[in-house]
């Protein structure tokens, strides 16, 4: 493969498997002279790490990030940052029983087809563990975006079949589901715990708002801002779809309803989700991603082994009954990487 | 900008504006020695060209494709193909009245913010006209995929609020909406014509099926097959969302419902849409894209001019009341480009 | 192949074969709003075109460049420029006799090995004809560099075994060899004509000076400015080597001789050729390229045919006895593309 | 910057500074299932590491390479290899005295111009230390090339003004200069030691032979095999030039002398250095690089400080009087990376 690199002018390359020594990332193209330290990065790492609440995996990972290069006397040097996150709590033993079987919903079968071999330990490279490196890299981009006045916030709008009916930003980090509706959050948590108790899992929808982005970001015709965000989001394992602004609801609208009129003060609505023709308009950029139910469940499932023999599998690992709350910081991280990269690309165009 | 190039090993670069001399594309990395001629490409061009029916724009474009390079004695040479499509029916006069105003739903405002200037003639580079070049390039990829036993078919599943309830493949090219349900197609056409008569437009949903794709296509972690397809589809102007397999419906499912079990014969279901961990499973690859209502309508809309003055605009061009039928070949073309590129990338990995 | 694209933020993609309909190039990433017209580009085209003097091929090509896209009302729009150059004087007949034989010094054999087939007409894609597209693209970059105060000048310093002993800039375009020494130029021309009369060819050395380049251009560690210039120059068919500053002579120097000391006014010497650690210093960037003798000669040479049979070949085309004067504008064009691309990359880094 | 990544299908990204915690590299796109272990990589690391002999720096670095990812049960998995090399013997103290001055011949001044700040400790990212990561990555490529029957050997042909007059392959690794002529090697070592005793340094020329490379490698027109090798070699700090086959000597030859004739057995000579039209012919690929004298010398040199004040500098670090013997494995490593990448690119083209 050679798909471990993302971005053009802010370029990130991740490495590492779920049960190897470590995961990490190189961030190249960082603006020099920017104040940065590990504690700033750790804030985001802590939002993604396992074991945060009753609705996430009890697995324990400290997810301590270390900067191996690119920093000098507390500032970025413009040379590549290498961010390393050690793997602490790896229990390959827990995976031995599934060593020779393809877990339904996992990449086991497709990876075997691609590589002709398999690192069965918790999915190896296909594990969500790899996203820890993305969150670290995204935090670097977030730091650069802060100076531009851009803020990026994601949150759960649906989980376990329950939808948020209001948006209370202050509630997001105050509930274990990271939902934007405090009342819905309570019912989501209850439902998720009940599903977990049955050894099952559930999905949800995560929404992301990007505020303060300059107009003019995105590159016609293939590197449209929404196209790049779509690639970034679908590169997250559990994400099965994305929609911008009205999204799929636009299919049922009339042009006269969907078009955003303007007056001298600006746009009068934002059905487009802040992007027209693939270029940011300066309005809030709004998109939602569909999150599938976690593939790892302890309900017995029919499958086959690498030997082609049919068997019933029951994964005993300690998994997230609903991945939404832990995907929120990953969605933000990827959005940060896309935005900062496009700020740099726009600067190159107009230079 | 520098976003006019797509693909890594099969690399396409498009150029041209809606009302310039021509649009075109360079296709680099084509397997040498493959039989190809203009008539094969023209078949796809004719599916996208305007003026095909009562539900598409009456604008006339012959969309004749010419091969300027890369072919010798009826075979590809392995050198870049340059495919040129002249612009015939350009009536800048029809656009003079909107010269100084930003058309709601169009890229006029965002392009002005990006470039600091504007080619107002029908959207210039942001026009759907550019997709003619993609269809030509996609036809080249389709030719390569045919030899691999891969077939790619897209069709309308929803338009003007009407949904298809059955899948009749033979019906698709036999109705003007390119819908997979012949009865629904009739009602769609009637509704679209009625909407057009009011000077308005409507959206829809286009679905795409890729059959015969080998397992193992796609590259962890950022260049997942679904991530690349998502970027390709969102790079089409009118597309506002994409979902794979169950897509957004997966948000409401349990893991035990969504996971695809296997037996010795293979997968017992395909909720994943033929992609696991971003890698093809060998099952049918299935995705849907949300198509927004055409931005160009003749209903009066409030907007502002480049002078900042408020005004009411009424675009008088001859536009598509519903772009779904003409987006179908574009969706197929982009899917062909992604698939063939990944076949070549997989060959490089395993080489 | 997929090697027809060059550059990251100023991206050029060429197409076309020596005896096809046309050659051309797409230039993507051009700064919007820059005044440009075909006559400006034509000035450079005329410097490269054949039939300029007694020391170049008598072949006649008007090399008229046409802009198909990316210009509107005399200014760049920021969208891709497509520059087209028609092929006029193609005489495949002249090549029929060599149709089945591999011409010594040409890419015939290696292309056959690569592609498994062959477009024998004058080398097809491997022909120097392709550089016409580079010169057109380079002229666009030159226009952007002029606004930055950068000037790029190349000239012959050695040809047919005769070396220039002085640098008279005004003499360069005033002699058919484009030599920087008017007296040497006369002897070079005489020697080249004598060699041509024998049906043979000769090589030379072309030097290039880049003045006014800002310090700080080039990207550690792989995309060093000299590394990118080296790739650009070696991508020119007849070039067999490159050296910067003292170049190969540095091999025989001491550190105390080669290091460039500084005082408050700046560098006291420029042995480095204006590049330290791969980054421009602000001094004049100086490099030389080795140009091999033209491969096409009418002296009989032993070779083999595609049938494996040995034969003697005598190419009868109308060729350049010394390609140096026509390579000069190509060297300048490639240098322009590299410099402008790095200005844009530096803008992205510091954005 | 974003220049820390090299290659298209075999993609390497390096990180780290001379006096930071570590240097390292991610190698992405490695063929899965290949047997590999750290001891294989260490063999090449040991050839580059300092302190090998009287003609290299006495600095001590163990240069122990550790594989952090991409290996499982002794085989490559196809996922990114992360190779880490710790920095042991860093003595920033030795650099304090030059903290505020620009060292002649070093990248200090140009880096300051690029980044607006400076990591003065031994050059930071611009230090030759970074090449340790390249050698580790190159060893991975070498392993893949061995299976293809490709061997790559570099050696010193000139140092301190002394040239090799014969090629004895067995002698190369048996003398401290890695020269191909054992007698010349002795005189080179003596001369280098004498120069070192004066606190000065000297340059040289390193030649590289690639045997067993298939014909057809390299991509027209910009990614020619010689163009890519040139970029790779000029990306090595001390390299100031490169020439292929006859190289600069070709400038003085006639076409009838330089062209390589063929008979039924193949080429009768190899003036081209195994590359025609940028594509390998199957003959031995031969090139030479010019190596400048080490910039770090203890001879007093006039320079200026970051404060603009003139001063005399005398670098007291422990440096290589001639870098040729330690550049040999770096040249080989970069050549390995280029070759293996092009094997994969060719596989993609013909797939």
From TrEMBL, chains A, B, C, D:
HAMAP family, per database record: Chorismate_synth (MF_00300)
Gene: aroC
GO terms of biological process kind: amino acid biosynthetic process; aromatic amino acid family biosynthetic process; chorismate biosynthetic process
Pathway(s): Metabolic intermediate biosynthesis; chorismate biosynthesis; chorismate from D-erythrose 4-phosphate and phosphoenolpyruvate: step 7/7
The family this protein is said to belong to: Belongs to the chorismate synthase family.
Enzyme Commission numbers on file: 4.2.3.5
EC class (word): lyase
Binding of NADP(+), residues: 48
Keywords for this protein: Amino-acid biosynthesis, Aromatic amino acid biosynthesis, FAD, Flavoprotein, FMN, Lyase, NADP
Molecular function (Gene Ontology), one example: FMN binding
CDD domains (alphabetical): Chorismate_synthase (cd07304)
Subunit structure as annotated in this protein's UniProt entry: Homotetramer.
Cofactor(s) needed by this chain: FMNH2
Protein name: Chorismate synthase
Keyword Lyase: yes
UniProt cross-references to Pfam families, sorted A to Z: Chorismate_synt (PF01264)
Cofactor note: Reduced FMN (FMNH(2)).
Function text: This reaction introduces a second double bond into the aromatic ring system.
GO cellular component: cytosol
Reactions the enzyme catalyzes: 5-O-(1-carboxyvinyl)-3-phosphoshikimate = chorismate + phosphate
Residues involved in FMN binding: 125-127, 277, 292-296, 318
